[in-house]
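ARCHIVE CARD
Drawer: 12
Card no.: 0347
Subject: one protein chain, sequence and derived structure
Cross-reference: see card 0346
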Amino acid sequence: MLKIENLTVTYPDQTKGIDDVSLTVMDGESVALIGANGAGKTSLIMSLVGVLPSSGNVFAEGIKLSEDTLSEIRTKIGVVFQNPDDQLFMPTIYENIAFGLRNIEMPEKQIKERIAACLALLKIEKLGSKTALKISGGEKRLVALATVLIMEPAIMLFDEPTAFLDPKARRNLLQVLNALPHTKLIATHDLPFAAETCQRSILIKNGKIFADGLSQDILYDAQLMDKCGVEAIGVYERKLK
């Protein structure tokens, strides 16, 4: 579903945000992307949809990312940003969700039907007429998800989806993501969330893949995680106590 070959992202100062990364995410698979701040998680996600220039190859459903295919790639891969306010800029929630569909000139009747189904799926039907300024952080997160989900991408990328969420909103988002059949790559510092949503985890350090395997093997391995500047789940929980 998503195939990455020798992907490298080099910044203007010649720092490599991503350094020769290769990986494959299978159809319907949910994969956590784990690493310390600055490890390259966001750089990887942004490069997959051409926001950051890169070398190497990216394939989404067999389509190779290039200048000529960028629009097509972005119909196949949806990105939910860390800050939902980056995706909510229209006067009402309904208009935010409709924005992408209107850009592809979908008939309004069809837009209305699709939005109604999306709002029902996420259990946020009451938010349609509201403004983003009048809803909670958790509600914003679900609306941002709706703006991507409405376009029916096959692959969804998430950058720190639980950031700034209270426990109830976090549980709600967890349930929503686990119910989605999409192929998902989730960059997160929330290791318990990763363990509950992803069977597979990729540990990244200095722009390179350091470990790739079952979440139960990686996220609880204190020695392995410490090498990448991340606390394993057990260590984190012990500190909380």
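Annotation on reverse: Strands lie at 2-10, 16-25, 30-34, 55-60, 63-64, 77-80, 155-159, 183-187, 200-205, 208-214. The longest strand covers residues 16-25.
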